[in-house]
Specification:
This protein is mainly alpha-helical. The chain is built from 72 helices and 4 strands.
């Protein structure tokens, strides 16, 4: 049975010869030979080997069994498109056929099945491929393989499949085996990657095969193939398996030695890929080449996305450490001397971006301590590649701020070792590391000059221990000289090591050698600049250029100090050659001197007075300046154009444009505008040399270079005349009429620009808008914006513009061109873009106000509107707030054309304009997340208009804004990744704390804050307050950049619901932020939102999140009520964030305490609406705060009518509302915009006071608050119930309702009972610096538990809401409302005189201490409020009021006069005498009676 015979027999090519079966052939041999069991076994093994080595198993089976064995062919099973698939060839049928065949052959069915499936896999993989080196299957191949794998799974499930045999068969077709097929076998569970790889007999060969396929896979991934998702999943699975198997800590001892090949293969493949990438970078890989794509893709596997599913971090850390070692040690071809010469080229900015990206990914997994320790270990034990070592040092100090100290400590150890035993290697390493870190600037590491001075510039230096150390140092420095950069030699010369006098020769020898080297390099030590950066390793600046920089820096220092800089004074003595030859000539450059002396003039005069300028040089300078002033004005402007034949046409064009401008302000000349525009068009053609026939030539596309726009001089002058004339005409026309009534002049004028002159016009606009935009004045911005609108109006008649790369190949319409010309890279360009967008959109809305929305959209580019939205959201917090109906503003073009236009006010007015809000509903102008991200990435962080905190705040809004994300159509992968990063940061804070528990210790930051604040100067002086405020703002910025768990902790527990971090944050708010970082009873929005985010995150980790939120917020009412009032202020923007976070984890509604905030805001909104108001929810103080904040947002004319509803509200709410209104009144006095807000605040206070007086509700307790309530006792009003718990039973008291309620406030009793015992005496809070007497007593009739519960003391609550400055100024507020005091109430209430006298004496003390200067009246106050803010007038009126009141008060009101005047009687002797006289005249019986308030 030869090989040539078998196929022919199988195919039946010889019909005359009967075909014998395999069994017959074997039977014939059995007849001829005796049966031998051993021989039979050998024959069976030979048959199995024959089957396994045969390439066409189906043909062999067909040969053995004849035509019936066609049933065993798998071609139809794997053919998904065949209609016969699985129709007659089910898995069970084929499986039974394989069993039958295996029994006939006498071989295991698993071996036979493995061979059949492997052969089929090979057939699928050898189908035509899309690439020359494929690793991925085609769609057709993938379908066929999927069908085959289903059949293989059936065989596996029925124990009819041998994995080992299958692996061996696969490796026989290794040349045609595709990597994706291997991956599918692993994913579908047919055979794992580990089994398949370990079954290969040659580990080196399998490593090479995997390396080649992984390279092809990476290349195809970067080529953006259609199967990118499959390729990404393949690469991720392979890398994860290699990392887990190659870097497991201990191998399984139960396994045999043979399976341990897998770690070797894994490490080998990973190392091959890394070495390939490093060699490619070293060879200078070209951008976007195939090798570049492979390296970029492979470095991407080190990101968390690819390795994110690796459960244990230990293998990952070992893998990253191994990778770092390979990077630092691979191909060490450079010597230390090479590193000294070349390390300036290895800074972070100059390192290949792919390598720095790899460094950053390695830094994510390993800590700074691990990285520095690993670097130290590698340098001590192996030969290294210095370029990669030093570039890694740069990446380390740039990316890890804490690495600076670690590197300093390591360098210090190296230096100590070097000088201890004269180790040259340690010395070289230390110097190279320090110089490399210093290259990254002072923000990353101290400068080399500073380090060198600190190390060798004192007696404590490393070299000061012995002569041996000195010799070692100077020998080392001398050996470096041939390789040194001039910068370092200059450092060593100007800051030499401190050397004892007897060893001075060592230093002089080195300095001579260094100077000789500098002379060889043609660098003069004498010509060094005064402020030259010696730490940078850049090129040496020319003396003249360096002198100009020195002059600018010296003038800057002089501006700040008013004195000649010390550096300049030293240079005039010790470096006189440079000072006289370079510095003074650069300073004394002749120029036209300004009329008002500037800093340069003052600096020169100071140097002259100090005899630092030679008289002759100064005299020459003055003469040159005088000669510059005498030059004609035209010469100062530049070189005039030479007279030519074009001068006359240009003058005629200028005259025609002037006539048109004159017609703009004369309504009678409107009819001649068309004729004048025609004249301008004709004269324009004459200037540019265009024939009349040229106007008929159609321009198909305009070529414009936006990066380097250029014009011919004649075109430049003509276009400038046109643009200047258009801007002037617009200003003139807008001065007499709005845009919609200016006639068609603008459209006619623009048509003259739409012909042959259009390319020149667009080129000039490109120069002005893209390259000179921030320098344009307001009239220029307004005129060019209007011009852009009218060009958009004519877009259908204008050609497209090709602006070249990086813009798309397709041409842009003219309106879209302006979108490309407006950049948002720097602060100046941001604000210019805002101005232009505001002007263009406002003009279009005014000009086409009566036309359809389609007309508006056609005149403006959608990109222009999107940029305006982006800038508004980014720059103005007002734009991030939801708009109400009252916020909708009217738009007027008139204020915009004024030279002093307020662009911020104009932009906000446009933002709230009704037509603009409707325009934003158009789908094509929606600012999507992609648009936002593109514009945000365009901004240069170092030149941004926003600080880090402001930028973070705008990012937070963008993340939660439906407008920006266009209805959740943005890149959710990026957002999800950002959320994962934040979650990782928060969870890493307390990894050792189990769920539902929280650490008992606070955060160390708060302790640092406390110590720093204690070190500051205390007091209410302006300097101390500003210093404290600046410090607190820095703390707030730090807290906002950290996870919110810093404020609240990572979780709450029932045993300790208020964590130590909460307590620390509450203390910081109550003691510091309340006074310096709050306004109007609320913290800023950013810190408020940050706290609530942390609160929800922590509570969501507890067992009952809703209950825990309720408990914490209930505690906040007494521990830190300012948090709740802040939440009320910012609720419109805070509510969506809280709802989103809560619903993401819980299906239940918001916790009850958060619902109270909702209800409070809703009550305030309903109260101010025309409809009937709803009932105020509990607690009353919170509802009052919500109503107060809502009143502040409403116009004054809308408040007066609504405040009449207060007659129906509860007494408690009115008293609290009066308190918050008093705080608002004082805030209006203390803020700069009090001219607008003060009248409103004053009228609100007056209206509430009038309601209180009318309903006979006493309000005097608000002016006698202490930490334990009014008059030193607990308020009788619980925080979350309408009425407090009842006191002991008392007898009714026949007092008016107002007096009864006043007693309730002071005693803490129910409104239905009055204590029979005499209330305690008053405790009057005294301002800082004013003596006080504390006469507090305990009410014997009050229940002891009520007095002991601090959470129920609303006096403390109100004091913790108001800043201390406001409570100190309560006397000022008291007498500001003097004209609204009811005369009968003043006499009727016994406590009124006591409070009035106390407030008067405190007001006088405040005035004497100078504390009333902060509430001085601003200019422009109305007549109604004149005198209200003048402390002198207020004290005069208060004094007169008291002198008139004292004789009319009942005698029992004077019972405590002696206590009031005990230490303050000398404040006003006349008032004191009147009080004492009245007290002495009162009978003794009245002295035992005290007002019920006290």
């Amino acid at each position: 049975m030869s090989d040539s015979w078998v196929p022919n027999s199988a195919s039946g090519q010889d019909p005359g010869r009967r075909r014998r079966s395999w069994a017959e052939l074997l039977a014939g041999r059995v007849k001829r030979e005796k049966y031998n069991p051993e021989r039979a076994q050998k024959l069976k093994e030979s048959a199995v080997r024959l089957l396994r080595s045969h390439q066409d198993l189906n043909a062999l089976l067909l040969e053995v069994e004849g035509p019936l064995c066609k049933k065993l062919s798998l071609s139809k099973v794997i053919d998904c498109d065949s209609s016969e698939a699985y129709a007659n060839h089910s898995s069970s049928f084929i499986g039974s056929a394989l069993q039958d065949q295996a029994s006939r052959l006498g071989i295991p069915v698993g071996i036979l099945s493995a061979g059949v499936v492997a052969s089929s896999v090979g057939q699928i993989c050898t189908a035509p491929a899309e690439t020359s080196h494929p690793v991925l299957l085609t769609v057709e191949q993938r379908k066929k393989l999927s069908s085959l794998l289903e059949f293989a799974q059936y065989l596996l499930a029925h124990s009819m499949f041998s994995r080992l045999s299958f692996c061996q068969e696969l490796w026989k077709i290794q040349s045609s085996l595709l990597l994706e097929a291997v991956w599918h076998l692993h994913v579908q569970g047919i055979v794992s990657l580990q089994e398949l790889l370990e079954s290969h007999p040659d580990m080196h060969a399998v490593g090479s095969w995997l390396f080649r396929n992984l390279c092809c896979l990476c290349e195809q991934m970067e080529a953006s193939c259609q199967h990118a998702d499959v390729a990404r999943a393949m690469l991720s699975d392979f890398v994860q398996m290699f990392v887990l198997r190659g870097f497991q800590k201990n191998s399984d001892l139960r396994r045999t030695v043979e399976p341990e090949k897998m770690p070797q293969v894994a490490v080998d493949v990973l190392q091959r890929m890394l070495i390939f990438a490093l060699d490619a970078l070293a060879a200078g890989v070209q951008e976007e080449s195939s090798t570049h794509k492979i390296v970029r893709c492979w470095f991407g596997v080190f990101s968390g996305h690819t390795l994110g599913s690796v459960i244990s971090t230990d293998p990952l850390k070992r893998f990253f450490s191994h990778t770092l070692t390979q990077i630092l040690t691979h191909s060490p071809v450079l010597k230390a001397s090479d590193a000294v010469q070349m390390q300036r080229e290895w800074s972070f900015a100059r390192t290949h971006p792919l390598l720095t990206a790899l460094y950053r990914r390695l830094l994510v997994m390993l800590s700074a301590e691990e990285l520095v320790g690993h670097l130290q270990e590698v340098l001590e034990t192996q030969e290294v590649h210095w370029q990669r070592v030093l570039s890694f040092v740069s990446a380390l100090v740039v990316c890890f701020p804490e690495a600076q100290q670690l590197l300093e400590d390591w360098v210090a150890r190296l230096m100590a070792q070097a000088f201890e035993s004269c180790q040259l290697d340690s010395m070289v390493t230390a110097f190279l590391v320090v110089r490399q870190a210093a290259l990254e600037g002072p923000s990353a590491f101290l400068s080399y000059a500073d380090w060198f001075k600190a190390s060798f510039g004192s007696t404590r230096g490393y070299h000061g221990c012995s002569k041996k150390a000195l010799v070692f140092l100077f020998t080392f420095l001398s050996d470096l000289v041939p390789f040194e950069s001039p910068r370092y030699l200059q450092v060593h010369i100007l800051h030499p090591p401190l050397v004892p006098s007897k060893y001075r020769s060592l230093l002089t020898d080195y300095i001579s050698l260094a100077k000789t080297r500098l002379a060889d390099l043609k660098v003069s030590i004498e010509n060094m600049g005064l402020y030259e950066d010696l730490s940078s390793a850049g090129d040496i600046t020319e003396p003249h250029s360096q002198a100009l920089q020195d002059v600018e820096k010296a003038i800057m220092v002089f501006e700040h100090t008013g004195k000649i800089p010390v550096t300049v004074m030293e240079a005039s003595i010790f470096r006189r050659p440079y000072y006289v030859s370079h510095f003074l000539p650069a300073l004394l450059t002749p120029r036209v001197l300004p009329k008002v002396p500037d800093s340069r003039v003052a600096f020169i005069e100071s140097l002259k007075r100090a005899d630092k300028i030679p008289p002759s040089l100064y005299s020459t300078y003055c003469q040159a300046c005088s000669a510059a002033e005498e030059k004609p004005e035209d010469a100062a402007l530049g070189v005039r154009a030479e007279p030519s034949s074009a001068e006359e046409p240009l003058g005629q064009l200028r005259a025609a444009l002037g006539e048109l401008r004159a017609s703009m302000t004369d309504p009678s000349q409107r009819d001649v505008i068309s004729a004048q525009v025609a004249v301008i068009s004709e004269r324009l053609r004459a200037v540019l040399g265009h024939n009349e026939d040229d106007s008929s030539v159609e321009i198909s596309k305009i070529q414009l270079s936006i990066n380097t726009p250029r014009l011919e001089p004649r075109e430049h002058m003509a276009v400038d005349l046109l643009l200047t004339s258009f801007c002037q005409n617009l200003m003139a026309a807008s001065s007499v009429a709005p845009p919609e009534r200016q006639g068609p002049w603008a459209a006619l004028f623009v048509r003259t620009m739409c012909g042959r002159v259009l390319p020149a016009v667009l080129t000039r606009l490109c120069q002005l808008l893209r390259h000179q935009g921030p320098s344009l004045s307001a009239p220029h911005v307004l005129g060019l914006a209007a011009l852009a609108v009218h060009l958009g109006e004519s877009r259908s008649a204008l050609p497209e513009v090709d602006v070249g790369p990086p813009a798309p190949d397709a041409g842009l319409p003219v309106p879209a061109l302006f979108d490309s010309l407006l950049t948002c890279r720097t602060r100046d360009s941001l604000f210019f873009c805002l101005k232009f967008c505001t002007a263009a959109i406002s003009y279009s809305l005014c000009k086409f106000s009566s036309q359809s929305r389609d007309t508006l959209c056609s005149c403006l580019s959608p990109g222009l509107i999107k940029k305006f939205q982006f800038l508004m959201f980014r720059l103005f917090s007002e734009a991030r707030q939801p708009l109400s109906e009252e916020d909708v503003a009217s738009l007027s073009w008139r204020p915009l054309h004024l030279p002093s236009a307020d662009w911020q006010r104009a932009a906000l007015s446009l933002w709230t304009h009704r037509t603009f809000r409707e325009l934003l509903k158009e789908e094509d102008v929606h600012l999507t997340y992609q648009d936002w991200l593109h514009l945000e990435l365009e901004i240069q962080p170092e030149a941004d208009a926003l600080s880090d905190t402001e930028r973070s705040r705008s990012y937070d809004h963008s993340e939660n804004s439906d407008l920006v994300f266009g209805g959740r159509t943005g890149n959710e992968d990026i957002i999800s990744r950002l959320q994962e990063m934040v979650a990782d940061l928060e969870l890493q804070q307390d990894l050792s704390v189990p769920l539902g528990h929280t650490p008992s210790q606070g955060h160390f930051l708060f302790e640092i804050f406390r110590r720093r604040l204690q070190a500051l100067t205390s007091g209410w002086s302006v300097a101390a307050s500003l210093q404290r405020q600046r410090e607190l703002l820095m703390y707030k910025r730090i807290l906002l950049r950290l996870p919110s768990s810093v404020l609240c902790g990572s979780s709450f527990q029932a045993e300790q619901p208020i964590t130590a971090r909460c307590e620390q944050f509450f203390h910081l708010v109550n003691s510091e932020m309340r006074n310096f970082c709050s306004h109007g009873g609320a913290l800023t929005q950013d810190i408020t939102a940050h706290f609530f985010r942390g609160l929800l995150n922590a509570c969501l980790r507890s067992r009952d999140p809703s209950l825990m939120v309720d408990f914490i917020l209930a505690k906040c009412q007494t521990k830190c009520p300012l948090i709740l009032t802040s939440a009320l202020v910012w609720w419109p923007s805070l509510e969506p964030v809280l709802l989103c976070r809560w619903r993401r984890h819980c299906q239940s509604p918001l916790p009850r305490e958060l619902q109270k905030l909702q209800e409070g805001r809703q009550f305030a909104s309903d109260f101010l609406s025309p409809e009937a108001a709803s009932l105020a929810p509990n607690p009353d103080w919170l509802s009052a705060a919500a109503l107060h904040f809502a009143i502040q947002q409403v116009r004054e004319e809308n408040i007066r009518k609504q405040l009449k509803k207060l007659d129906c509200e509860r007494e408690e709410l009115l008293v609290f509302l009066f308190f918050f209104s008093l705080m608002g009144l004082l805030s209006s006095h203390l803020t700069s915009n009090s001219t607008r807000d003060l009248p409103k605040a004053f009228h609100v206070c007056a209206a509430i006071l009038e309601c209180l007086e009318k309903r006979k509700i006493s309000w005097l307790a608000l002016f006698q608050l202490t930490e334990s309530g009014p008059m030193g006792l607990s308020w009788g009003l619980p925080l979350s119930a309408p009425h407090p718990p009842s006191c002991k039973r008392s007898t009714p008291h026949p007092l008016p309702a107002a007096d009864r309620y006043l007693g309730i406030l002071s005693s803490g009793c129910s409104p239905h009972t009055i204590p029979t015992a005499r209330p305690p005496r008053v405790h009057v809070p005294t301002p800082r610096g004013v003596p006080s007497t504390d006469n507090r007593q305990r009410c014997p009739e009050l229940p002891e538990p009520l007095l002991g519960v601090a959470d129920l003391r609303l006096g403390r609550l109100l004091l913790r809401v108001a800043p201390d400055q406001h409570t100190r100024l309560l006397p000022f507020a008291f007498y500001s409302l003097l004209s609204y005091f009811h005369e009968d109430a003043a006499i009727r209430e016994e406590a009124f005189l006591h409070v009035a006298v106390d407030m008067y004496l405190k007001l006088v003390q405040l005035f004497v201490a100078g504390d009333t200067s902060t509430v001085s009246p601003p200019a422009g106050r109305s007549l109604e409020l004149q005198g209200q803010g003048n402390p002198v007038e207020l004290i005069t009126k208060a004094r007169l009021f008291l002198l008139q009141l004292i004789p009319r008060c009942p005698k029992k009101s004077f019972s405590h006069v002696a206590e009031l005047l005990a230490d303050r009687g000398d404040c006003d002797p006349e008032v004191s005498a009147a009080l004492q006289s009245r007290q002495q005249a009162a009978p003794d019986a009245d002295l035992s009676q005290e007002p019920y308030l006290f």
